[in-house]
Design brief:
The chain is mainly alpha-helical. Helix content is 65%, strand content 6%. The N and C termini lie far apart (41 Å).
């Protein structure tokens, strides 16, 4: 029988099991809608059920799995209403960070925004989704890093993981990403002008608006319909 004994080493066992499960989720090996058998997995990993259960509880808190009495632990399916709600939450929280920390945008931060967006455009020209994605996260982190509200930042990052790493897709809707970098350019212009209100509203009401982005969201997730990752259930 195949095992993954020996995977764990330095960090606490719960942390290592959590990272292991996240890797399996992101890679699609634990697919949305499937069930995790606690006994089988603990045997496979060569560990007790306690750290495995603790890691799964953390994943349930983050919304990746659900515990069902007498049925087991199910990997959650990402539904349309989830995506809509995630966009609303991310937009509101990122706008809140911008509003409360706008004075922290200086020349260095603006240059960083411009650099990350430039690198995103270059990645698009190469059809390099992984690099595009990394610089997209880094762009938004320029201002998220202003916040000392760890819960807020963790919430935003967790929702982004659920949107884009569940499992990780290797392709993208290029038209959408081109428009997205254009939206970044517009956001930078509002920052340069010192327009706090418009910068925050643009991120919330355009960049993270489900309604504005809906046609692209549907195209982006359409390829995953057969794997039950995205459904129109409400």
């Amino acid at each position: 029988m195949h095992t993954d004994v020996g995977f764990f080493s330095v960090k606490s066992l719960r942390e290592q099991v959590y990272e292991y499960l996240r890797k399996k989720l992101d890679g699609g090996e634990l697919s949305p809608g499937s069930f995790i058998n606690l006994n089988e997995m603990s045997e496979r990993l060569g560990i007790s059920k306690t750290p495995l259960r603790e890691a799964l509880i953390q994943l349930e808190i983050e919304g990746f799995v659900t515990f069902f009495p007498r049925k087991g632990i199910q990997v959650n399916v990402l539904k349309e209403k989830d995506i809509r709600h995630f966009y609303e939450i991310i937009g509101a929280l990122e706008a809140a960070v911008i509003l409360s920390n706008f004075e922290r945008f200086g020349d260095t931060e603006i240059e960083k925004l411009e650099e990350e967006n430039r690198l995103m455009k270059e990645a698009l020209e190469r059809d390099d989704f992984d690099t595009f994605y990394a610089h997209n996260i880094a762009f938004h982190n320029v201002y998220l890093d202003f916040s000392d509200n760890e819960t807020l930042v963790k919430t935003v990052m967790n929702l982004k993981h659920r949107l884009y790493d569940f499992p990780r897709r290797k392709g993208f809707v290029k038209e959408w990403e081109v428009i997205s970098t254009g939206e970044h350019d517009q956001f930078i212009e509002y920052v340069k002008k010192g327009d706090r209100r418009m910068a925050a509203e643009y991120i919330r009401d355009v960049h993270w608006s489900f309604k504005v982005q809906e046609r692209f969201i549907r195209r982006y997730y359409a390829e995953a319909e057969n794997s039950r990752l995205y459904t129109s259930a409400r």
